[in-house]
């Protein structure tokens, strides 16, 4: 007993954003990307340590 579903085309949503809001979002994105890079670097350094080494305190 399967039900056939009609497929609809995707809908487009239009939004308005002020320039200052866009700038703020871009700044937040850049900060988050930097944080991701820092965390990846920290994780890689942790993974590269020998297993008998004590982890560095942050």
TrEMBL record:
Note one Pfam family from the annotation: DUF6026
- InterPro entries associated with the record: DUF6026
Give the keywords, sorted: Coiled coil
Instruction: Locate the coiled-coil region(s) and give their ranges.
Output: 15-49
From the Swiss-Prot or TrEMBL record, give the protein name.
Uncharacterized protein
């Amino acid at each position: 007993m399967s039900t056939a579903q009609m497929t609809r085309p995707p809908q487009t949503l239009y939004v308005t954003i002020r320039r200052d809001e866009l700038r703020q979002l871009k700044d937040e994105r850049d900060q988050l990307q930097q944080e991701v890079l820092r965390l990846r670097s920290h994780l890689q350094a942790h993974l590269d340590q020998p297993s008998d080494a004590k982890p560095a305190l942050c």
